[in-house]
Design the sequence.
């Protein structure tokens, strides 16, 4: 074997050793999460209810015993005559003060809900995806559909088309096993873009993108995004920002707020 | 006429008209009060601070919420034909703390005597996806267990205690059994436990008279947002590129080693 051949062999081997990692590095898939600029964020804030949720005073509400200072019946009562209150139905009811018939009082009036959403179209991104209802996972976080080609509607909140509140639709930006998700590029939506949500009854509702926002997850205004009161709106949420390899999660959330299209 | 006293919370006269149908939201300086009638077969009138507030209040119904300024109130329950509250069946005084929610339950005690029990309603916010179930033993009956879908969820509840559960929202089949037994006292009843709502279930009536039943009301709007939106787990991660990389590196090292060794040997010859 000639020296030249040996030298060529050595050079080829070294080139392979150098080139292979470079090619590998270049072809590594990158996290799909976007980093976008906020657009029209103030408008989205204005849609929220002033007090996003009912806040009781849990600190001072204890068990009944804490408010009962003398709940025990008196002995006299125990020994009282057994005749119940004389039921006299014939007498006209007294009406000396403003009264309300107790039996006619509903506790909480129910608002008829729109049908369950089943399909969402984002024509400016070429997206047309199925929607499934989702709730929360075991950690109390929003449940995201396992299939990245499907998005989820938060079923405990308003449905798209409800008279009030924020209807939330979410989807994976990407998945470690499935690649880029159908919501991977919603950060490209800009005010004016159209969104159409179709419900199980076949009714299509059109929305117009109003704003685009991104926050670090620790600062995402979840109470506003999941607000069940305030102006009717549609909120699309996914992940964005830098990808953290140690947690296999993204640092940010991106939300698109859309409002019912006029007319 | 029997007369029982209980300290509790309840309503006022001037506001009596505007109170019903109010939402759960209340300002910090008012309290909301639900009135539950759990005494069988006995319609009553309810007077608050001397004014007729609930006229001909029917058994096994709920009135409210009454939205009342914080303060102390005198409550009297009379026969439905009473001209005023001078001859009450039951009386109670109520100290209402603003921002709180109360239930005032007229019911039978464990021995069958009418009484009034006040309860503070837990209206703290509920975690996303959860519901709150509050069960109150307000019946002339011994200790009971509360079962949901056949499983005991609250054990050994005695009159007038309450048990509170925060559980995933669902429609459950609930029944009441004598404590430690499978002897059904009430139910089963289908309870739709809505997410973000608190359902207050009152077991009322008398076991001896066969009048046991459930009286419920719901407070909605206690929901909260999910804890986060974990909508991404990173780029698709397959082993193929890594395997190819290792194969190429091995091949490259092999070739280089062979060539290098030849060169070295040639030189040394």
Sequence:
């Amino acid at each position: 074997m000639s020296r030249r051949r040996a030298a060529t062999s050595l050079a080829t081997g070294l080139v392979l050793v150098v080139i292979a990692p470079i090619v590998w590095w270049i072809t590594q898939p990158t996290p799909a999460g976007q980093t976008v600029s906020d657009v029209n964020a103030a408008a989205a804030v204005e849609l929220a209810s002033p007090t996003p949720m009912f806040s009781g005073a849990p600190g001072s509400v204890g068990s009944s015993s804490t408010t009962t200072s003398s709940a025990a019946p008196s002995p006299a009562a125990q020994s009282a005559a057994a005749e119940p209150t004389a039921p006299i139905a014939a007498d006209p009811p007294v009406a000396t003060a403003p009264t309300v018939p107790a039996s006619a009082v509903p506790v909480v009036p129910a608002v008829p809900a729109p049908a369950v959403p089943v399909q969402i179209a984002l024509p400016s991104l070429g997206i047309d995806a199925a929607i499934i209802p989702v709730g929360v996972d075991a950690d109390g976080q929003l449940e995201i559909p396992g299939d990245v080609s499907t998005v989820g509607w938060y079923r405990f909140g308003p449905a798209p088309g409800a008279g009030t509140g924020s209807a939330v639709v979410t989807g994976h930006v990407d998945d470690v096993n499935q690649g880029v998700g159908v919501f991977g590029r919603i950060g490209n939506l800009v005010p004016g873009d159209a969104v159409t949500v179709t419900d199980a009854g076949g009714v299509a509702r059109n929305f117009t993108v109003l704003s685009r926002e991104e926050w670090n997850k620790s600062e995402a205004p979840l109470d506003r995004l999941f607000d069940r009161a305030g102006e009717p709106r549609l909120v699309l949420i996914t992940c964005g920002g830098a990808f953290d390899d140690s947690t296999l999660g993204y640092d940010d959330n991106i939300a698109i707020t859309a409002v019912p299209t006029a007319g | 006429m029997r007369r029982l006293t209980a300290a509790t919370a309840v309503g006022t006269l001037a506001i009596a008209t505007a109170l019903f149908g109010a939402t759960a939201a209340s300002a910090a300086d008012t309290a909301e009060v639900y009135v539950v009638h759990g005494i069988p077969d006995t319609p009553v009138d309810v007077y608050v601070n001397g004014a007729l507030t609930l006229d001909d209040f029917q058994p096994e119904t709920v009135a409210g919420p009454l939205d009342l300024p914080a303060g102390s109130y005198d409550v009297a329950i009379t026969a439905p034909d009473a001209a005023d509250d001078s001859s009450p069946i039951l009386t109670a005084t109520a100290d209402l703390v603003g921002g709180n929610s109360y239930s005032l339950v007229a019911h039978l005690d464990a021995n069958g005597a009418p009484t009034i029990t006040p309860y503070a309603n837990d209206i703290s916010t509920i975690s996303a996806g959860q519901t709150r179930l509050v069960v109150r033993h307000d019946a002339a009956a011994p200790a009971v267990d509360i079962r949901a879908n056949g499983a005991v969820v609250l054990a050994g509840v005695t009159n007038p205690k309450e048990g509170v559960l925060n559980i995933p929202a669902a429609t459950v089949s609930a029944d009441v059994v004598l404590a430690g037994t499978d002897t059904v006292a009430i139910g089963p009843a289908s309870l739709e436990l809505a997410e973000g709502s608190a359902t207050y279930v009152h077991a009322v009536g008398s076991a001896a008279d066969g009048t046991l039943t459930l009286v419920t009301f719901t407070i909605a709007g206690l929901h909260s947002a999910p804890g986060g939106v974990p909508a991404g787990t990173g780029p698709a991660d397959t082993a193929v590129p890594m395997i190819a990389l290792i194969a190429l590196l091995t091949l490259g090292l092999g070739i280089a080693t062979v060539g290098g060794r030849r060169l070295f040997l040639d030189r040394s010859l």
Summary: Chain B touches chain A through 119 residues (CB under 8 Å). Chain B has two domains: 1-121, 125-224.
